[in-house]
Amino acid sequence: MNLTEAYKRVRNYTEQICQPLKTEDYVVQPVVDVSPPKWHLGHTSWFFETFVLKPHSFAYKEFDPNYNFVFNSYYETIGARVIRTDRGNLSRPTVEDIYKYRAYVDEAMIRFLSTELTDELRDLIVLGLNHEEQHQELLFTDIKYILGHNPLFPAYSAELNVNKQVARIANTGFLDVPEGIYKIGHSSDGFCFDNELGVHRVFLEPYAIACQLVNNGEYLEFMRDGGYKDHRWWHAEGLDWVKKNDITAPMYWHKIDGEWYNYTVNGLVPVDHDGAVCHISFYEASAYAAWKGMRLATEFEWEAASKLFEWGSRWEWTNSAFLPYPGFKKAEGAAGEYNGKFMVNQMVLRGASVVTPEGHSRYTYRNFFHPYLRWQYTGIRLAK
Known about the structure:
Elements: H1 3-18, H2 37-56, H3 67-71, H4 95-113, H5 119-148, E1 174-177, E2 180-184, E3 200-204, E4 207-210, H6 216-224, H7 236-245, E5 253-256, E6 259-264, E7 267-270, H8 282-291, E8 295-296, H9 299-305, E9 315-321, E10 347-351, E11 367-369, E12 378-379, E13 382-383
Parallel strand pairs: 9-12
Antiparallel strand pairs: 1-4, 2-3, 5-6, 6-7, 8-13, 9-10, 10-11
Helix pairs in contact: 1-5, 2-4, 2-5
């Protein structure tokens, strides 16, 4: 697929994700970590306008000078921006305005892609496409949070059911991995983010890693055993989080007439005991592992074993902090803000999820979130 076709495919898919929404759904921001869908639509267009068209496309005219302030996410290099907590206060620009903005940027980008591009520019555009694919996953999870915290529990789509894409979970034991020196990091010719670079070797002691993810039925046993109240299984910070927020179950679980229900993209349904547990924080994943007398794998153990088991239905918490690989260097300018400045107080997740765009996952991919977050499709794979 050439770059123009790849651009059209990615940009069209973003809008397909939003097709089931009503206008009111586009503007809601229930919590700071969730952005309104219309902001995602604007921000991903702003990325191409700001980093590709304005500096490199001759005679390109900016759509609206105010949009740099509205849709800049965290790039200090680019200038002032609306603070993240205020994204839901933006009743203007309207949803209609933002779709016009997307069409305007797309028309200019298609013209630009027909010109002769340097390798550096092609790499920048590929980065932009991968950036938008990240936002496609965020769109799915942000929309689910918006609708899943509506008291009516409205379905996102009657046709789509991401849970059907997840294989039934059957515990098939553990894989033994021998001690040895393992190569870590991205070394192929395909695209990767800068935080995957810096191929290096690590020595690993012998360990075992689960073939399958923890399922809902197994996690229910932890809950019924008083797992959320037993301090023995929790980090101190995690237990404080549980008490402060009155956490008693995974996100989207609701106990109704003595039975557990789970909000899905199709609405509220009984919890499927065989399905992989998800919307779990690092604190919960670690506590469950401790309750089982086990632990979470480090990201290096996960990567070394990743070709031996199936992954991709849940982002999997690891027991590794998000830190730079040896030799990591931030790029100059705004591109250097993409990952490097977030390498503090966050935990690494590996794999992908059922809402990760096709072709966007690889075994070296390093996702990262604060340990209390769980609105993504996050799960648990045990190690020992």
